[in-house]
Amino acid sequence: MNGLTVGVEQLDSITADIWATYVAAESVVMAFGAQDADPARTDISAQVDIHGEITGTVVVACDSGSAADLARRMFGLEPPEEPTMIEVADALGELANVVGGNVKALASHPGELTLPLVHAHERIVGWPRSRPSCGVEVVWDGGRATLFVWAGGDGAGGATSKGSL
Amino acid sequence: MKVIVADDSRVMRQIVIRTLRQAGYGDWDVVQAEDGADALAKTDSEGPDLILSDWNMPNMTGIQLLAALRARGNPVPFAFVTSEGSEDMRATARSAGALGVIVKPFTPDSFRELLELVA
After folding, report:
1. CB 3.0 to 4.6 Å from A48: which of A6, A16, A100, A123, for a disulfide?
2. How large is the angle between the packed helices B108-115 and B10-20, nearest 10 degrees?
3. Rounded alpha-carbon distances, angstroms, from residue A39 to A133, A150, B59
4. Rounded CA gap, A89 and B27, in Å?
């Protein structure tokens, strides 16, 4: 089994493209070094897992205010309308799905992408015995989010249904 | 023109519909489906002219949906709107009978390029 191999420059480019298209045209992406790509407590995170001949996990994490802003923008909500928790989970999960799919497309070996799993007020779930590969932070005028890629693992995780919120 | 938009994410369905409008297809009649099974049922009841489907969905995936349609002899034009645009996936989509793959994140131009084939 092969670990997912993604360079931080590739994750940076994928993130910039997705955020510019779906969130805010003027988003800034900053790369973490692999040593900084550690799981951390966060308000809300969404992950997709890749399993098969390649394995890995892609996570999008942010605070609740940023997550609400993402949902507001993606759903096209106008004030005073605010997104529901289901809508926030949907938006964050879909961002993880789009990032994950683009990351998976870089792999030279086949694999499958799980449906997104969204966690609230929980530690990010990664693959057992996996190593962090890279991470980026993206900032826009409504918030900030952190994206991590874990490579490898034994395929013991993964979502079978969308959203747990 | 009636189109079924199938995606388990409601926000993505809304983004697809918004992008269709931006691409100049705002007068199309859009029917939403939340997974492949829902889309298959609505194909029977709505008789769409086109199906735009996500690949990875619960209950029935997009590729399973396409296979089911073709197995029934339904030639409805079908395109994938998905997060992965690898060559393997595009080849699988084409051999299953899809017009092509629109990769997320997409723009109105991405839709126009493919939908000019059917619109």
Report:
1. A100
2. 70
3. 12, 10, 31
4. 30
**Angle of the B36-46 helix axis to the B62-71 helix axis, nearest 10:** 40
Which among A13, A88, A90 is the top mutation candidate for probing chain B, defined by the most B β-carbons within 10 Å of its own β-carbon?
A90
Would you call B56 an interface residue with chain A, using a CB distance cutoff of 8 Å? Answer: yes
Instruction: Give the sign of the dihedral formed by CA A40, CA A140, CA A30, CA B108.
Output: positive
A91·B82 Cβ contact <8 A? no
The 3-state secondary structure of A3-35 reads ECCCCHHHHHHHHHHHHHHHCCCCCEEEEECHH
pLDDT digits (tens, 9 = 90+) for B20-67: 999 999 999 999 999 999 999 999 999 999 999 999 999 999 999 999
Judging contacts by C-beta atoms under 8 Å, the chain A residues touching residue B83 are 97-102, 113
SS3 of residue B21 by DSSP: helix
Instruction: Name the pTM for this structure.
Output: 0.90
Cα A99 from Cα A103, distance rounded (Å): 6
Q: pLDDT, tens digit, for every residue of B98-110?
A: 999 999 999 999 9
Measured between CB atoms, which of A22, A87, A110 is closest to B15?
A22
CA atoms within 13 A of residue A86's CA, in its CB half-sphere: 3
